[in-house]
Amino acid sequence: MISDMNASDWWKQAVVYQVYPRSFRDANGDGIGDIRGVVSKIDYLAQLGVDAIWLSPFYPSELADGGYDVIDYRDVDPRLGTLGDFDDLVAAAHATGIKVIVDIVPNHTSNKHRFFQEALAAGPGSPARERYIFRPGRGEAGELPPNEWKSSFGGSAWERVDDGEWYLHLFAPEQPDLNWKHPDVRAEFERTLRFWADRGVDGFRIDVAHALAKDLDSLPLEELGRGRGADGLDPLWDRPEVHEIYRSWRRVFNEYEPARFAVAEAWVVPEHQRYYASTEELGQVFNFEFAKAGWRAEDFRRAIEEGLACAELSGSTSTWVLSNHDVPRHPSRFGLPQVAARVHHQLANDWLLRDGATYVEDRALGARRARAALLMEMGLPGSVYIYQGEELGLFEVATIPWDRLEDPQARRTAHGDAVKGRDGCRVPLPWSASDKPAPARWDETFGDGATGSFGFSAPVAGVPRTDAPSAPHLPQPLWYADFAADVQEADPSSMLSFYRRVLALRSELLAPTGDLSLTWMEPEALGAQPDQVIAFERPCADGKTLACVVNFGATDVPAPAGQLLVASGDLAPDGSIPTDTAAWFVC
Ligand code: NOJ
Ligand code: CA
Question: Between the CA atoms of 419, 423, 426 and 431, what dihedral angle is there, to the nearest 10 degrees?
Answer without folding.
Answer: -130
